[in-house]
Amino acid sequence: MPTTASAASAFADVTTSESALRRFLHGLPGVDAVGLEARAASLGTRSIKTTAKAYAIDLAISMIDLTTLEGADTPGKVRALAAKAVHPDPTDRTTPTTAAVCVYPDMVATAKAALAGSGVKVASVATAFPAGRAALPVKLADTRDAIAAGADEIDMVIDRGAFLAGRYLEVFEQISAVKAECGDRARLKVIFETGELSTYDNIRRASWLGMMAGADFIKTSTGKVAVNATPANTLLMLEAVRDFRAQTGVQIGVKPAGGIRNTKDAVKFLVLVNETVGEDWLDNHWFRFGASSLLNDLLMQRQKLATGRYSGPDYVTVD
């Protein structure tokens, strides 16, 4: 199977200079904003039957990167989050585990120890998250430390200032360098902070730039700005990974993050995946939700389907 490294080599001719990379990125088809938003809205109206809803809820739970990214994070909070990731509903052991627990680099070792043997991954936001404004050696050291502590996945954030200033090659080289640091030890998710990229054309360019540089996943947002994941920007990124695989044979994951808080919204995103890229992406190896409060609503809806009634306010833990 082709790899992200082979995909990067396929674009070697257009990544040798700023001008060549600019020509390629600005030569991508322009985004019809009205059409994109209309497609996303139309797909969001699809309804699913009860049996399919039960499947969708469990699938969504299994796709969550359960996240805590606060300055007040403590080892105790991270251990509690890890316990919730392994047994989201302690009263029902048929509930799937989440995909990963996402923490700052200094909490990776704590999360890794708490999740030992569970199969739940440890993801770490590195590279000067959430601003991405640091020298490359600092970003690489951040990545190296997280991997040394046991991170299975690195969520890096691009320098939006460099991207918006048109310094595409600089952004490409930073992603490539972080990918090289990850090697085969950790998968790399590249965060664009779509709410700061201003236009859909920029989101499409960033998607291709990230994939060409070796991203294993492309991710909408940090969750730290006003506009995070939306159906339209996620649809656009899904179209990008679909087209990238058609051109290179390499499959890239997608992670919408921030603002997805309830089951209804999660199901809408799963419909987007199914209708845009198909079943190949309906797996937590290829699609994730960056969320924390979403899990609580999924658990409450899951119990409602099983018992016919909503649980009391103490049924789920408060994050």
Short description:
The protein has 319 residues and is an alpha/beta fold.
Overview of this protein structure:
- This protein has one domain (4-307): TIM Barrel (Alpha-Beta Barrel), CATH 3.20.20.
- It has 13 helices and 8 strands.
- It has helices at 4-10, 18-26, 33-43, 50-62, 75-86, 108-114, 136-148, 160-164, 168-182, 200-213, 231-248, 263-276, 293-307; strands spanning 64-67, 100-103, 121-126, 153-157, 187-191, 217-219, 253-255, 289-291.
- The chain has an 8-stranded parallel beta sheet with strand order 7-6-5-4-3-2-1-8.
- β6, α11 and β7 (253-255) form a beta-alpha-beta unit.
- The mean pLDDT is 93.
H/I helix tally: 13
CATH topology: TIM Barrel
In round numbers, the mean pLDDT is 93
Any idea of the CATH class? Alpha Beta
CATH superfamily: Aldolase class I
How much of the polypeptide forms β-strand, as a percent range? 5-15%
For the secondary structure, the number of strands is: 8
List SSEs in N-to-C order: HHHHEHEHEHEHHEHEHEHEH
Sheet with most strands: strand arrangement: 7-6-5-4-3-2-1-8
Largest sheet, if any? 8 strands, parallel
Q: What overall geometry do the principal axes of the alpha carbons give?
A: globular
Low-confidence stretches: none
Number of domains: 1
Q: How would you classify the helix and strand content by structural class?
A: alpha/beta
Q: What is the multimeric organization of the chains shown?
A: single chain
- Helical percent range? 40-55%
- Terminal CA distance reads 40 Å
